[in-house]
Amino acid sequence: MPSSPINRLIESLAGAVTREGDRLTVSNAQALAAGMDGLVREAVFGDPEAKAAARWIIGESAQALGIRPASIHDFYRAEGRSDAPPRFTVPAINLRMLAYDLARAVFRAAGKIDAGAFIFEIARSEIGYTDQRPAEYAAAVLAAAIREGFRGPVFLQGDHFQISAKKYAAAPDSEIKAIRDLIAESIGAGFYNIDIDTSTLVDLNKPTLAEQQKLNYERCAEFTSFIRDQQPKNVVISVGGEIGEVGLKNSTPEDLEAFMTGFDKMRGAREGISKISIQTGTSHGGVVLPDGTLAQVAIDFGTLRLLSQEARRKYGMGGAVQHGASTLPETAFHKFVEAAACEVHLATAFQSLVMDHKSVPDGLRREMVEWVKAHAADERKPKDTEAQFIYKTRKKAVGPFKKNFWSLPADTLAAIGADLEKTFSFLFGELAIAGTREMVAKTIRAPEIHRPAPEGAEKAVQHKHVDGLAD
């Protein structure tokens, strides 16, 4: 007889969880962890009802185990109240590929050093080309936490929820609505950290800094107010602002003052932002040379330190945020701590490590290159060499080839995960987040938030098998 997706998936967990209405009780955490590999595949590749059921089971199981989406707001505000600069920099990790396997590697690396201050994030643009909506991304990360035995707050972040200047100029109301819709969707999935990027609206042709930053701080304040209206009870979502678009002019203390003066007037008595993203000389994905290698980038660490100090001293924030850093040389990462950066965003290097991993079949890589040539040709710049074009655009193939990578042999996925774990361990060491779990526990209260079981997942349906999940 057909059974409902929720009942079928709970039964597949071999008694690890029991259900009472809209709550789950975990009776065997070890058996539950063992069942995550199959359950998360349903959450990603199942039919709509199975996806909804699997995501709900993962989310409610995580709640029962004390693995709860949380806001890092109070943690950063505590840093802003301290006279001493932070002794570490929080890594914010974008998982464009193999989100579950890479999140497992993150949790393993963090567990070895008792780290709790790290963030999983995905940007507005990445959601599209990696084919990962917020609910799917959250399920993959929480499933990884269950699989690896992690307990405590999990920080999920919407990165670069960015206004498109071109779309805004053509139809501002439509672009604003798109960001609001994404914010609401993300909060519903447990993203209690959101970086608003309206720095694309900064107009450097205006005569004064206040005028240059005006649209930026106005739209940022409006989105912050919208977030405060949407945030769950007992959650103060961590909101980040941005004063300089990555890849353009380096930020200055005067830019920060112009932005914050206008922003604070607009927000009134409502809680503001907890960090500020700035530009110090990097670009997303790095600067690609004609042979496909990356140019050495000189980050202005002096500016980073100065603006972090200003953000804490004047505005009570955690400090400044550095974007576009994953492709920097290994010798650079400890400097973020020295410069008192509160957060650093890391993305492209992990994508490259997966795509270029020696265990990935050459045939799969060739297929991706051919796909890019056929489907992203319009993104090729006139002066791009073949190597530059492929490096810059191959990320667009991540979504179309998502299932190919998830379906790689178990030993291949294990090899990729092991090498990424080494990378995360190195970065966590350089960013000095060892021992931060206790600090997180002292400042963060992740409330227990339950969601009703999805209606469609309650109906009896004929099961469609998804590879990797036991019937």
Report the major sheet: 8 strands, parallel, barrel
Q: Tell me, what is the CATH class of the largest domain?
A: Alpha Beta
> Which structural class fits the helix and strand makeup?
alpha/beta
The figure for the number of domains is: 3
Cα radius of gyration in angstroms: 22 Å
Q: How much of the sequence is in beta strands?
A: 5-15%
pLDDT below 50 for ≥5 consecutive residues: which ranges? Answer: none
Read across the widest sheet, the strand sequence of neighbours is: 4-5-6-7-8-9-10-11
The named CATH superfamily of the largest domain? Aldolase class I
In the CATH hierarchy, the third-tier topology of the largest domain is known as: TIM Barrel
Termini, distance in Å? 14 Å
Oligomer: single chain
CATH architecture of the largest domain: Alpha-Beta Barrel
- How many helical elements? 20
Number of strands: 11
Percent helix, as a range, is: 40-55%
User: How much is the average pLDDT?
Assistant: 92
3D shape: globular
Describe, in plain words, how this protein is organized in 3D.
With 471 residues, this protein is α/β, with parallel strands linked by helices. It has helices at 5-12, 29-34, 36-45, 48-65, 73-81, 99-112, 124-129, 134-147, 165-170, 172-188, 209-230, 253-267, 301-315, 334-338, 348-355, 362-375, 386-393, 402-406, 410-430, 436-443; strands at 17-20, 23-26, 67-69, 90-94, 119-123, 152-162, 193-197, 238-242, 275-278, 320-322, 343-346. It has an eight-stranded parallel barrel, surrounded by seven helices. Strands 1-2 form a two-stranded antiparallel ribbon. The longest helix is centred in the middle third of the chain and has 22 residues, at 209-230. It is globular. 48% of the residues are buried.
